[in-house]
Task: structure prediction
Amino acid sequence: MARPRWSAAFAVPFLAVTGLPAQETPASPESPFVTAHKGNFPVILSAPHGGTEDVPGVPPRRGVGIPPGTNGFFPFRDVGTEELADAIAAAVEAKTGRVPFFVSAKFHRKYLDVNRPPEFAYEHAEAKPVYDCYRGTLAAYCKEVRKKYGRGLLLDVHAQGMMPGTVMRGTADGKTVALLRQRFGEKAHTGPDSFFGLLGKGGLAVFPARLDAAEDPMFNGGHIVRTYGGGDFGIDAIQLEFGWTLATPKAVPGTAKKVAAAVDRFHQLYLADPKK
Ligand SMILES: [Zn+2]
Result:
């Protein structure tokens, strides 16, 4: 489905806030299977597992060479997360007047998994350009956010069925938010005004419920947040594993609004003032 909303909604606030010339507005991503646009706000949304589209010429993966374990072969979609990421982006814009950077998969995960290192992400040469587009765009956006704002937050949107009504946190137990913790202390990761503290205060059930407890090893952060968060890219990253009941068509607007409120507050507390 086309989303013309973005081309129209994006250009005006981007130019108004940054004053950048028109040629700085984003080009289309190089792959038709990736939705992406730049923003004017130090938050990057990524949704790698929600897509539904076939990739012509690419057979479904069979799990060849993928070692078993918590991050083993899993070719199934995170149902509803493509729509949820769209709704979060729109809700953030409604709440803040600013547009987050955005990268979302249109392709079905059975053809490639962009939340894996390339050697485990795809099995067919035709899938490589799609992988490279998703990850290359995301890496470029992380660098751009770091350069423009001095810091930033990547939110990687997923869904899970283990705790249906709960959002599970994935930060590799704090590693992917190392820069945040260095600047603001542990409370910025595990306190009431941490991102998950804010989600909880906004009415979403969160895991770990005690925010300083260990994350679930199945959902504690995949290759995307571990690559871009807390290290060389100069930004932090959190994997959001939404319980599936939070990502149904009926639930998405309410979920998105709660996430946007947390994003807005988090931005005020930790991102807006680069001197803090
Ligand atoms: Zn996922």
About this structure: Residues 50 and 82 are 5 Å apart (CA to CA). The chain is about 35% helix and 15% strand. Residues 1-26 have pLDDT under 50 and may be disordered.
